Amino acid sequence: MDGETSQRWQVELEAAEAAFARGRFEPVLEQLTPPLLAPDSGATPAQRLAAQMLRLRSLGKFDRFEAMLDAAHAALALAPPEPSRLRAELLALMSFAYNHGGLCEPALHAAQLALRDALALDETDLAALALERFAMAYLWMGDATGAERYMLEALGFQRQSEPRPRDLLRYSNALHLACTLYDARVTQDEAGAHAQLLRFARFTTEGDRLAAGEVPDYVRGQWRGNRLRWQRRRGQPASTEAPLRELLAQAIERGWLILALALRLELALLLETQQRPAEAAVLCEELLQAGGPELRRQLWLRTLITLLRLRRRLGEDAAADRVQAELEAAEARRQAEAARLRQRLAELDLQLIKLLAEADRARLSGEIRRLRERRDEGQALRLPGCDWLPA
Q1: Would you say residue 2 has pLDDT above 70?
Q2: pLDDT higher for 9 or 124?
Q3: Which of 5, 20, 40, 181 is the one with CA 20 to 30 A from 279?
Q4: Residue 42 has what pLDDT?
Q5: Residue 33: which domain range?
Q6: Phi-psi region of 255 (alpha: psi -120 to 50; beta: other; left: phi over 0)
Q7: Does 34 fall in a domain?
Q8: Of 322, 337, 352, which residue is a domain's last?
Q9: Residue 257, Cα to own-chain centre: how many angstroms?
């Protein structure tokens, strides 16, 4: 191998890592293209694996889940067969991609393998990451109790780990889950939804402490955004609007596209609660235009649902009908994409199942049956954009 080529490759890799740390995910994907990661690229296997992982993390910011799973398959072939920190993170990323594609069974398989590696290594921060993946899979499968339990377990493991700059992400994701569960439950069980939200209050102090330390600005911005989302749902909209607008301006200035889009929706929801539907509708339209093809599917669906509600409230029935048609078409596309993805990646899922211990395989099969029965009986929690699609 040409040593000079390998050195040049290392410079490229370090530049991509720096862009990722700044929250600039688009340049990472522009730089680390699949041809550049090919075996004949001149990079060492370790460099190719590091680049695939960086590409995986970046793809996850844009809902490119099929590309994520393709990259994961390539990375899994490069990763050592024995447990390692890198392989545990890779499996957790695979779980994330499967889950957001609506394929919750393989998401659970990958999460279990990630947890197994983390526990074998005695790496509590990785165990926390794997348990967070379980929480999100249970959320999509409609089990609110299971989702909350796994997230609280994840935070318990996180507290046992050595402090790392990105620990704040776990607390940020916990508040994201709390807000998502609240939104799904509040119209059916307002008291229960508020009680669940309150159970996460003890983690806000710890998150605030971490946010005041040495953490990447983008991660701190994510924490502030989810902290404000949680605060608004606690009944403090008046004290939330100005900080939300300030954070949105910062996200736009820094080029944090995904965070800026999510903050626009949160601001629209706040304005809706303050009886300002026209302003909220404008924000939703701006969000859909600004997001373009990079807009996360779940965020896009939530925005369309909010806009539909606002158009009806404003008496704009023709505009509301157009939004309704767009929602129905989006759902049909999503189901077709998931079916194609499930068929194309069946071999990868079988590979994961073979790696599972027999006891874990049996336990997960039983859990999947139980959760499917709950869903078929209409007992599962339903969330916009979070759907467990049929096997």
Answers
A1: no
A2: 124
A3: 181
A4: 72
A5: 10-78
A6: left
A7: yes
A8: 337
A9: 15
